[in-house]
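>> received
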Amino acid sequence: MTTTFRAHSAADLLSAIPTMAGYNPADSVVVLPFAGSTSVGLFRFDLPVMQPQQFAASALGIVCRLEETTGMIVVIYAGNTVATPLSNPFAPVADALRVTADACGIELGDVITVAQNGWFSEADDEVHAHSEIGDGPDVGAPKPKANQSSGTRLPRVDAGRMREMRAELARLDEASGVEAPREVAERLVRMNDVFEAAVEAQRGSVAGDALLLWLLSRPSFRDVALAQWCYDADTAEEVLEFQLDFLDGEPEPPEALFLMGEGPAPDADRLRAALRRMRQLAACASGRDRAAPLACAAWLSWALGMSTHAASYAQKALRAQPSYGLAQIVATLCANGHLPLWAFPAENRRR
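>> returned
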């Protein structure tokens, strides 16, 4: 569903951004690409920790992937910094963005800075009070979160459930012995049902959650689960066959690497449901067992376009298991500002 509202001034735009983003940006550079007079997206970046020109090249590299973009507006959120039009520490960032946008054939309409002492626009060079930024438009959406990092704390769970989970995981390990993945797949013929249950309920039984966690702790099955949550059981079966053939040394390369954001757009509702389940599962796990659901939460967040959350979950997973592969991959994707192709409306729509 697309919601349309009009911003008649810079203050109107600032009031609308939290609604558009779903949170109140902090220590951020927000880029709003436009096609004519219509916004076609919102990209948030951490306040630059790199050279301005390097940051501008990275930001425009993402914006330019929206082919319909003709212009953009930039808002710099620096609530811990005192700044004025004549003394703005972020002026080099604005200048680099303007030069790079011009080189890309994109008009940078305005740069607005929201500082500790107020906000100002390049268009009028007057410092305005924060109180001039009104409430956001009422579009029936939930109240924006405090900032882009809000919502990554895991839910609380009963200590008794955690103990039961550990006991059940130990039982599953003992029962499986040294089974190879193909033997496990042949024994658990209804593996797809286990994965599907993860998007149907936020919490399962101890036995069900333990089996799901036990499977996710094995990378070949974890990727199968992610494929099913993205698409469907048929796609999951294809990924399972690839994984088993890969382990046997006879892989047929897949047409698209969905884990790297290639291929058709996933079902966002299924991803959000799986993310809720992974957060609950990670809360029920302990020690190294937390790495798999946290890494899954990281990837699911990244696939949904929530790179800040993805990076947070990836770091949590790496604290549980410092060399956990999927968490390292997601952390690298986020650090490099890499987004999945399906994050761009004109590309890779599922047909």
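>> The beta strands are 28-35, 38-39, 43-46, 71-78, 107-115, 118-121.
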